[in-house]
Amino acid sequence: MKMKLLTVLLGVVGSVFPRRVIEVSKTMALGPSYRNTEDLEPRQWFVTAVRIQSLLVLLAGVYALRRSDGAEFEVPSKPTLTPMESDTESEEE
């Protein structure tokens, strides 16, 4: 549930503030290697692409939140090593 909410939050932030997301990403990715990352200006098509991508992330997060029924995937503490019925039927054919 927390990851789904984080996805929605990142989608909202990226779609409302695409230039700020680009600035933070630029600093994180290029900062260790380049001295003047603040001088780099993104082109308008890139800003639009970041906004569209963020909207898609937002939609995916909202879809995941609406689709979830409250049950989370549980990993069994002790795995079963016996084949399931559907696995044995397909091997016999």
TrEMBL record:
Pfam families documented for this protein: DUF6199
Region Disordered, residue ranges: 71-93
Residue ranges of domain DUF6199 in the record: 5-65
Domain of life: Archaea
Protein's UniProt name: DUF6199 domain-containing protein
Source organism phylogeny: Archaea, Methanobacteriati, Methanobacteriota, Stenosarchaea group, Halobacteria
